[in-house]
């Protein structure tokens, strides 16, 4: 084994191989070879003895966070216009902001800031919307790749029911999407994802073309589903042939035919939930966004009880922060509020939600989000300032999730490579 191929971290290792509890290894060694976890050892095995160790002292070593739904292009509008609900917010703020990405200089500036904030917050993998602009979307991919962040990036498609300045020509939208796919489909870390904005802004021809690309190039899909009551009513008017919102995606093969993430899933019928499970579509819970746009609260416990896979997303700019620890906290808080009104829905525990933010979302990227053997080494080193009272590793993790800041994260690894920050 060559020296450069092995990474060894020593400290208090905490992660969630399963939802129900944390695995904790105090004062142990986490060893990765060629970017993948080899094992966790209390005593360093002989063959690694002369390899340098990153000693994290009393700090924690945890998996990097996975943000399954966010809009890189809305980074500049965080916190703006959040007195609106979804459709007004799109019209008054978001479409205008995204239009600025026709300018590659503006795109570069925003996407650099976005990427640095993603890294600062300890997110190691992200599934992101860019905009309709092919050149700017390429710029986002280049910046993420250069910084070593794992990502799926979508060139947004929209050719209907939106302002003229954002409305794509259908054929041009498909051509540019295919060109973008060719450019990025073989990149090891940053890959394309099929991205119809949401059903109302896509023509049937466009949806059909995107479904074909997903199948032809074996690409995953991301979009939005059942976020807001007015949106759902609008979809029913626009697609009267579909009884339910999800069936619009389903009839164009954008609903689990390839791995699919659907953001929100707030207002879900029993039939829609069943279809999510059967098609293994991943629902992405975005608590900040649910609250900021008064959309509702995703029935997270109900989805999990019904076998639907779930991940977490920050959904900026409807969410106002790229912090996944804060997304974890709000997910737990919202589940507690829901449990007050829905007696069958037990609140979620910290280990369950930490799992969603690491291994749960990480599954979308393959073997990501855990420290089991064979997983990619995506890791954060957490060094909180001296606590007021002595804390166990698990208590340190709790305190970091609830009160930590990016300054507490003292090192970040993605695919076993240390990220300069
Ligand atoms: Zn979104």
Count the E strands. Answer: 17
**Largest sheet, spatial ordering of strands:** 3-2-1-4-15-16-17
The oligomeric status of these chains comes to single chain
Mean pLDDT: 96
Determine the CATH topology of the largest domain: TIM Barrel
Largest sheet: 7 strands, mixed
Q: What is the percentage of strand-forming residues?
A: 15-25%
How large is the radius of gyration?
21 Å
CATH architecture of the largest domain: Alpha-Beta Barrel
Report the order of strands and helices: EEEEEHHEHEEHEEHEHHEHEHHEHHEHEE
Q: Calculate the terminal CA-CA distance, rounded to whole Å.
A: 28 Å
The CATH class of the largest domain is: Alpha Beta
Identify every distinct bound molecule in the structure, by name, code or SMILES: zinc ion
Structure description:
Helix 8 (270-278) links the parallel strand 12 and strand 13 (282-285). The mean pLDDT is 96. The two termini are 28 Å apart. With 421 residues, this protein is α/β, with parallel strands linked by helices. A seven-stranded mixed beta sheet has the order 3-2-1-4-15-16-17. A four-stranded parallel beta sheet has the order 5-6-7-9. It has two domains: 3-64 and 370-418, Urease, subunit C, domain 1, CATH 2.30.40.10; 65-365, TIM Barrel. It is globular and about 65 Å long. The chain has helices at 86-99, 104-120, 134-147, 170-184, 204-217, 229-238, 245-251, 270-278, 287-292, 300-305, 324-341, 350-362, 393-403, and strands spanning 6-18, 21-33, 36-41, 54-63, 65-71, 123-129, 150-154, 156-157, 190-192, 195-196, 221-225, 260-264, 282-285, 310-312, 379-382, 409-414, 417-418. 37% of the residues lie in helices and 23% in strands. It is built from 13 helices and 17 strands. The structure holds zinc ion. Zinc ion is lined by residues 69, 71, 224, 263, 315.
